[in-house]
Design goal:
Number of strands: 2
Strand order of the largest sheet: 1-2
Helix content: 40-55%
Strand content: 5-15%
Number of helices: 5
Distance between the termini: 36 Å
Order of helices and strands: HHHEEHH
Shape: globular
């Protein structure tokens, strides 16, 4: 499992970082980039470029919010190995803070914001 050695102390998560971490968490045993991308596009209704996704995945690994494991290659994938991303404990803590702040700030605004 790859781990970052230069992790920065956690600041607030950006919106896209939150979406990537949440989409990764939804895949209980870790997620490949294409699964993360598909989940965000389906759930958030927004287009995700490969470049933006991979830059964000790399940044989250650098911040020690994600780790990845290399899966073995398969003939179905043309012999190419794949990275499976997993949310770290630090990533889970950052998500808890971020989601908690949004929930706290949106309390009492249900009528204005409408149902999700």
């Amino acid at each position: 499992m790859k781990r970052s050695k230069n992790a920065e102390p956690g600041g607030p998560l950006g919106e896209f970082e939150q979406l990537v971490l949440l989409a990764t968490l939804q895949q209980r045993d870790g997620a490949r980039a294409r699964e993360i991308r598909a989940r965000i596009e389906a759930s958030a209704g927004r287009s995700v470029s490969r470049g933006a996704l991979y830059a964000t995945l790399d940044r989250l690994v650098e911040k020690d919010l994600l780790n990845w494991e290399l899966e073995e290659s398969t003939p179905a994938r043309g012999g190419l190995a794949s990275r499976r991303f997993l949310v770290t404990e630090r990533g889970l803590q950052a998500l808890r803070r971020s989601v908690g702040a949004v929930m706290t700030l949106s309390r009492g605004l249900e009528r204005l914001l409408g149902e999700a």
